[in-house]
Amino acid sequence: SQKIEQNSEALNIQEGKTATLTCNYTNYSPAYLQWYRQDPGRGPVFLLLIRENEKEKRKERLKVTFDTTLKQSLFHITASQPADSATYLCALATWNTGNQFYFGTGTSLTVIP
Amino acid sequence: DTEVTQTPKHLVMGMTNKKSLKCEQHMGHRAMYWYKQKAKKPPELMFVYSYEKLSINESVPSRFSPECPNSSLLNLHLHALQPEDSALYLCASSQEIRTGSQPQHFGDGTRLSIL
């Protein structure tokens, strides 16, 4: 069966440290992988997109890597701040599904001051 | 503020009621989506509209009926819902659905409770 799993449901880190979130998938051949942030009671907000032929993408304090051999994407937040506390979702799209995305299970990140 | 507006924000209805959820975007996007999200779970795709035509229906029960009156509006008509349909219903839009290279813009959802 197809699965998209994100590491531990909840992740706590100290302010200023780097948070690393993992997205693992099985039985997909994703063409694109996106990361979203979701705050309680709000809709997801797009953060970054990476294509299958890209190894790494950066945006300010955010970095995404994509390893199609390991079937894994890592999402890093450097110099984390309490305002980064939220649920982070990865989402895959394949060449067959176009912009139809399958979301991962999500990781709830808490940055402790 | 999000660029996708959903109304109402909260809705409580009985199992015999008929109600509608509304979604509006003015970004010129031609793809619009309905998702259902239960607590502490990821969004699950329900329907996709592309150029105002239903493109994908993820085997959703017929008590949910989508409608796309024009390129800016998306409705979800509800009838005879069950308690397990209580969830956050999210609307999203993107430029098109041809590729997965476009971000989806989400509204803040309608919190639906079925009594």
* Element string of chain A (H = helix, E = strand): EEEEEEEEEEE
Report strand % of chain A. Answer: over 45%
Structural class of chain A: mainly beta
Count of DSSP-assigned helices of chain A: 0
The level of helicity of chain A is under 10%
Approximate shape of chain B: globular
**Oligomer description:** heterodimer
Treating each run of at least 4 consecutive H or I residues as one helix, how many helices of chain B?
A: 0
Helical percent range of chain B?
Answer: under 10%
Give the overall average pLDDT of chain A.
90
Rg of chain B (C-alpha, Å): 13 Å
Largest interface: A-B, 27 and 29 residues
Q: How many DSSP E strands of chain A?
A: 11
Low-confidence stretches of chain B: none
What's the mean pLDDT score of chain B?
Answer: 92
Strand content of chain B: over 45%
List the helices and strands of chain B in order. Answer: EEEEEEEEEEE
Structural class of chain B: mainly beta
Compact description:
Chain A has no helices and 11 strands.
General description of the model:
The complex is a heterodimer of chains A (113) and B (115). Chain A has 113 residues and is an all-beta fold. Chain A has no helices and eleven strands. Chain A has strands spanning 3-6, 10-14, 19-26, 30-38, 45-51, 56-59, 62-67, 72-77, 86-94, 102-103, 107-112. In chain A, the strands form two sheets. In chain A, strands 2, 4, 5, 9, 10 and 11 form a six-stranded mixed beta sheet that branches. In chain A, 35% of the residues are buried. The mean pLDDT of chain A is 90. Chain B is mostly beta strands. Chain B contains no helices and eleven strands. In chain B, strand 4 and strand 5 form a beta hairpin. Chain B is globular and about 40 Å long. The A-B interface holds A 9, 30-32, 34, 41-46, 49, 51, 89, 92-94, 97-106 and B 2, 4, 31, 40-45, 48, 56, 90, 92, 94, 96-109, 111.
